[in-house]
Write a structure and sequence with these properties.
The protein is mostly beta strands and 253 residues long. It has 5 helices and 17 strands.
């Protein structure tokens, strides 16, 4: 199926039969990416000793009936709302009401500053023209490798957005920020969360409809440029939910 979009007065086409999935699938065990110092996710058959019933066909049960234990922030691609940092319970279902956005994919090499690696405002300003009028920005850090799909990030001091970079994205009225890191903020920042707060403009002018998606993976064959983004989440009443951001290439022919 092909759909037509009008972007800035110009017609573009997207083929929904050619999705570009930029999520990381959740799997049980240590091969799943991990952050925030918690145990790996677990997907295992339910056992009911009282009823002498097992949720595994391979073990003699009538159906496969798995229990899944994970944390959306720590175990893979997830989309979060400002409720991630507020005392009141804002949930992602109330923040993300629609699923389709015009997104710009940019590749950025974090700059070494002391022991840290940062993505700064000046680097993003180089894409000012491309980002104009976009609903979403997708940041792919380089170098890029499939190791991101299984990386154990604990105590690695991953790259992060500076407060000024996050504020710049917000100033462009970009409502959805996607990045291939466990967090837009520094791993150990004593709870400052400067990039989260700057992007959501919290607490002075809180953008409750804005979202941050972390732990994505964008393969190298997907080139920088403008895409139709389908940002799908699981319907969790929570500050964050597992998500499956999917891109569709745009053509004007």
């Amino acid at each position: 199926m092909k759909i037509t979009l009008n972007i800035g007065g110009e017609d573009f086409f997207a083929n929904t039969d050619l999705p570009l999935d930029i999520s990381i699938a959740l799997q049980s065990g240590v091969e799943n990416p991990n952050a925030w110092y918690i145990t790996p996710p677990v997907i295992e058959a339910e056992y009911n000793e009282e009823e002498e019933w097992v949720g595994s066909v391979a073990e003699g049960g009538p159906v496969n009936f798995n229990h899944i234990s994970f944390n959306p922030h720590a175990h893979g691609t997830h989309t979060e709302c400002v409720g991630h940092i507020t005392p009141e319970k804002n949930n992602i279902l109330d923040s993300l009401k629609t699923a389709h956005f015009v997104a710009e994919l940019v590749s950025v090499a974090p700059i070494k500053v002391g022991k840290d690696r940062q993505i700064n405002k000046e680097q993003l300003e180089e894409y000012a023209e491309e980002l104009e009028g976009r609903d979403a920005i997708i940041i792919r850090t380089v170098p890029n490798s499939e190791i991101k799909k299984t990386q154990q990030y604990n105590h690695t001091n991953w790259p992060y957005l500076t407060e000024e970079a996050a504020a710049y994205i917000a100033s462009l009225n970009i409502k959805h920020l996607l990045i291939d890191l466990p967090s837009v903020d520094k791993e150990k920042d004593n709870g400052a969360l400067l990039a989260h707060k700057a992007f959501w403009q919290y607490p002075e002018n809180t953008r409750k409809q804005a979202t941050i998606t972390e732990f994505i993976y964008v393969p190298d064959h997907i080139i920088d440029g403008t895409y139709l983004l389908n940002l799908q989440i699981a319907p969790f009443v929570n500050d964050a939910s597992p998500s499956r951001p999917t891109l569709y290439a745009l053509t004007n022919k």
